[in-house]
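ENTRY TYPE: paired fold submission
RECORD: A
CONTENT: sequence, then structure tokens
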Amino acid sequence: MVHAHANGRRGSRAKHKCGPMICRGRPAHHTGHSHVARAIWIMLAASVLALIVASPCALAQNESTLISGFLMGHSEWIWANPFRILFIRDPLFRHTIYPLPPFISEQDKAKLDRVYYPRTRDLLIKGYDLMVFHDIRTPFTAKQVFDLDYAFREAGMTALCGLCLGWDYAWQPTILADLLPISEHGSVSPFFRPYWVKFRSGRDPVFLPFVELGIERVVGDQYCLMRAKEGATIWGDVKPYDIPWMVSWRPGGRNSGMQWVVSHTFEGWWAEQNNLYALDVATNMIFYSLDRPLIADIHLRREARRLFTNFQTQKSIILSMMEWAEDFGANVAPISGRLNGLEREMGVARTDYIEQDYPSAISFLESLSGVVGEITADALRLKDEAMLWVYASEWLVVTATAILSGAAVWSLMFRRKKYMMVGTTKLQPFS
């Protein structure tokens, strides 16, 4: 009987497995729900995996679309170069700057080269898309001359030159003079007097879109005589003197880059307070040289760049306040995490900006303004809390010092408990 009962239980258990109940008594129709849930989890896992894989690819794509510039020139004046200002404000660009003092010895220049200049030709070519030269008065080394000649003729690198005295000291004595679209450059006798630029019609729309914005009314203050080589393109003329203002060409070579030369140097005509569109003109020159689409909408690009600049300014202020508060022991980790998250979100706006989808970039940046304001307010509150403890500590120290000093003065000068009477002695005559 026991055996039969066991067999019966065993048989009933087998029948129960094959019946309408499975999975510890759950109805069979629940298996469909489990399959749906499993499919949903698989889809979510696949989506997460796709995001993980796609994020580095998108980042690498954004990095590859950035334009890298190398600025080299007069150590006093290069800081105001319009291309340097553009590279700082515009998220499309990244740059390296080489402030080179004029007329220094070869030994001193060699020391600076080891710090600032690319050590090899490959680093120069692979690291930069263009070079900006601003009044270089110290000659290049022989190796630098041949590397630059190769970069401009064979590697497609662009050069934007404000020569000034650099023509006489760095270009004309070397083979680099053959790269430039000019045969004469009166840098030793420039003219320091007002001028304006008349842009030539019939040229590609690099400068012409700015004519209707009043760029021909901008007044410059320095220019010099230039003679363009045959085959070069003259984009505009110095008025009222009818001499070339901007000249360019692509020199001979398998993959030559555009070479630009401006009259004299990057002077007052390029100052943003004098020329509102100076940075946009510089951007169009770079786009044209690198065969990229020219600016689709000048005003929208300016607005988007302004919003990017405002964000970077606010970010710098927040970081300064965080660093200051952290020095006094404040916990800045929450604000730092929020700021890092905001920086990651800014990647969407940068992508839109690089693709010249300016309305989307502007809309996204404006939507983040409230978040930036909240983070700024929290950083200010953190700073104020740290300052409160600083002021409280200083107040306690000053108050304690005043109390102790007052008590000592009261005891010594008024109550005189610490004074003791002493006897007096009278001098006795010597016997």
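RECORD: B
CONTENT: sequence, then structure tokens
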Amino acid sequence: MSKVAAVAVSMVLLAGLGFAQKQTDWINTSNSPEIQYRVQLFDDAKTCYLDFRDKKQGKGYTTFDAAVDYKSMDSDSNGDPNSNSQSSTKIKTETEHIVTASSQTGSARISDCSGISEIRVNYIQRH
């Protein structure tokens, strides 16, 4: 019974890997190189998952605001992004409040996202 369960779990995990694109390496934010991020895109969900870390992280935690410029598909006049009418990619900005710790990255999820253009951080506080 345990072999069957192990095979089933392996199949589920491998199937899940097919939906995700490759996760990027760590990238410096545009205005504060000690804060880094990496992106994982899920095509089917049109969602970007972001991890953040502080290279100057001490034993406490770090908080900051991240302004995320991301690519988003513009919907047609009926709100349908999948219609055959003219659609275009727009750059939108979303602000996320992030908390990192020495043993854990901070995270954010951006819906309707097809890629990250730039991330700027503000109000960095190390505790």
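NOTES ON RECORD B: The chain has one domain: 22-126. The domain at 22-126 is CATH 2.60.40 (Immunoglobulin-like).
STATUS: closed
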